[in-house]
Amino acid sequence: MKFPVLLLLLAPFAALAQKPAPLLPLADPAIQKLVDEISAKNLEADVRKLVSFGTRHTLSDTQSPTRGIGAARNWVRDEFLKYSKAGGGRMTVEMDTFTIKPDGRRINRPVLMANVLATLPGTDPADTRVILVSGHIDSRVSDVMNAIADAPGANDDGSGTVLVMELARVLAGQKFPCTLKFVAVQGEEQGLYGSGHLAERAKKEGWNLIAMLNNDIVGNSHGFDPEISDDKRLRVFSEGVPANETPEQAKVRRQLSSENDAPSRQLARFINRAAQLYGHGHQAVLEYRPDRFLRGGDHTPFNQQGFAAVRFTEMNEDFTHQHQDLRTEKGRAYGDVVEGMDFAYLRRNAGINLATMAALALAPAAPVKVEVLTANLTNRTELRWQAPATGPKPSSYVVLVRETSAPQWQQRIPVSGTTADLSISKDNFIFGVASMDAAGHESVAVLPVVGR
Ligand SMILES: [Zn+2]
């Protein structure tokens, strides 16, 4: 019954004069090669090393060379420096330090915290774009204030931290026009302090941050309650309405029903497509909500500062392994230990992150001032936009189209100039415009605003 379904899907586009292009852009073998360089062995060795610091609680020891958050941070910094050296020394490494005062909640004394941040500068000084991938280095047990007990944090969030490290290793010697940043943030479990600090800094320093990828709990393919396994899919959580939306923007959003098209959601759709291109069948499942129930994450402060930011989390979580004292109860082992992690799964999840970063970095910047013209009552769609002011000049563009009730793009229409006149009604579809280069690298899509 495949054929009739396909006909049904294409029926709304019957009026399109333009020749339909394949729904996905071309895959770049160079990106695939980098994705395939990610090593499950490295990921496992790095998690085991992180666990060896005993606890990485934000309030734990910073002086010991072998135990506590201080030793762990220094180790990540030294690894970043090694990758930088092996990659020709262009990647810079810094301790992004800041002090958090007692907050009456989860910080009981002034704490000097540090995000470990590596930066691979772009080769084009005129390209202001920045892409950031993150994991959180801190860990915890049942009592969020317990900074003494062993808190291995193998999966939460050793998995995200080592994913970031492995991407830095693979990419340190590569050349991209724009800047890539790799960060292990601190203070997540105490109140998103590291990411909050970095998001504020990004805003203050005027970073043109086009994508923030938060990886938190991405290395376990087996969930409990109920028992469930899935090593073929990774969840991508994204906000549909921007956290920093103004009342004026809310008015426009209600008018257009664009509650499913925030920049973070467009980024999530881009990730889903990057996974289809480079994931060897591994899927990025779009979750149309900003996070899971009862939980928050490091992408949230970036959303609040107005940046496109998403959260990656494994398909099924095992809550007996998260935020738990190491113990055995009724025959079940509790605690966030290495045993039970799935490093082949973590490797595929890292691949989706790398593919996203490389595909975004190699594509031209997204078009700007994208508008749908609504001056006349017609059954056509007129779109116009401008070339991006930064990065490599696009050689062409694509218009992405979907029905208003469809979750994902259904048509992809190549366009040579900066306008499009489509023989389908703007009333019945949602549009996005993306930039493309001669090799076929395609940017994230931009939702048009109403123009006249
Ligand atoms: Zn976490």
UniProtKB/TrEMBL annotation:
InterPro entries reported in the protein's UniProt record: FN3_sf, M28_fam, Peptidase_M28
Question: Where does the signal sequence lie?
Answer: 1-17
Localization, per the record, is:
Secreted
Q: Key word Signal present in the record?
A: yes
Residue ranges of every copy of the Peptidase M28 domain listed in the record: 115-325
Q: Which Pfam families match?
A: Peptidase_M28 (PF04389)
Superkingdom per UniProt: Bacteria
Which PANTHER family does the protein's record reference? METALLOPEPTIDASE M28 FAMILY MEMBER, PEPTIDASE M28 DOMAIN-CONTAINING PROTEIN
Keywords linked to the UniProt accession: Secreted, Signal
- Please report the name of this protein according to its UniProt entry: M20/M25/M40 family metallo-hydrolase
Q: List the source organism.
A: Hymenobacter negativus
| Keyword flag Cell membrane | no
